[in-house]
Amino acid sequence: MRELAATRGSVDTFLAIEKHLQDIGVLIDLAEEAGDEATAAEAMAELEAVESQIDKVELELMFSGKYDHADAILSIQPGAGGTDAQDWAEMLYRMYLRWAERHAFKVSEIDYTPGEEAGIKNVTLSIQGERAFGYLRSERGVHRLVRLSPFNAGSTRETSFARVEVYPDVQDDEIDIEINPNDIEIETFRSQGAGGQNVQKNETAVRIRHLPSGLIVQCQDQRSMRQNRERAMHVLKMRLLEIEERKREAELRELKGGFVDANFGSQIRNYVLHPYQLVKDTRTGYETSNTTAVLDGDLDAFMEAFLKGVRAND
User: What is the pTM of this model?
Assistant: First the structure.
């Protein structure tokens, strides 16, 4: 039903643009016949409106990946940099929450572990909305921050890193991945986030370790151990699926060339807050000096530049 609604929407949009252009053609003919400058100006204004519609359609065409229309699972882990890195991870967490709010996407926490002094040790989010994964796949990789540290007396300039991972959130029956029960280890623990009495007193949170890949997934947002285990297994399947998809993408790029580095460890974006203000994507070259807007969730220009680059190399 979701796919049907999206297809109908695309057809309706095309028909609306076609009708709009026909109406503009009539206006232009009338303006030429009557020498009416006001009608000609109206036609030009309508043409600009159609161009805006076409720009939106061209953006939609960039979502050509198999799971681009799916919801997304996004996780953030601090890297090198100690407390500064944990604080940077929380800044990214806030940035993606604000971005999701701008798009009216629904966000829920799957896992959240706060840092000892500040920031977070890790967070995993479910982001639900049309093309959530298509947008957010541009964010996969290492994000680097340069700023004056608020966590030391000298306020020295520090460099911090955090890794963002994004997976498509699709139904289990759409995933052709089987997990051998002998390949996983399951632990339970008490939730570290805010919650009711059941969450605080009982070991309802679940951590799953996938031995062949070394992946570790944990879930603590549900009220029962069974629900957390099912959710954690689902996320594990998403991560394994994404690894397989990235391998296939890498093989294709090796055959025909491409500008996007597929490694999770690749540094994709620099956020410099001192001695100057600049956010620059290392893959596309897109940059802006409005660091405040970016950290407040204004990411669409970076995402569109990435999608254009991917489409140009398809």
Answer: 0.75
